[in-house]
Specification:
- By secondary structure, the protein is an all-alpha fold.
- It has one domain.
- Helix 1 runs antiparallel to helix 3, helix 1 packs across helix 5 and helix 5 runs antiparallel to helix 6.
- It is globular, with a radius of gyration of 17 Å.
- The chain starts with a helix and ends with a helix.
Amino acid sequence: MRKSIFFIISLIFLTDICDTISQLFLKSAINHLGLRINSVSKVFRFIVQLIRIPRVWIGFLLSIFSLGFWLFVLSKADLNFAFSLDSMRYVLIALASTFILKEKIGIVRWLGIACVVFGIMLVAAG
């Protein structure tokens, strides 16, 4: 039983890693364009430019992998358990945003992230 739980937790973590990397690719693609959208025609131009960027497709591909892992997790674990542990993505996104994208995260947000980590630990222990 413990081996099965460890496997499920590992798959949830893999899902979160895929999602985090996907979001990094998508955010870097958006930042690369640097468009200011203030009209409908610019929205269409923005979308056309986006689909030409390989990082967008890599981000989509990672999202598809993540979905596949997630669907497997849902076939093996209770939704309330899996979804609670899936909250680890908030921590991973915050860390990746800070260290890779060089975004600033305030102390209040870090405290909130610490609460999420504490909650994840409670769910995993229960």
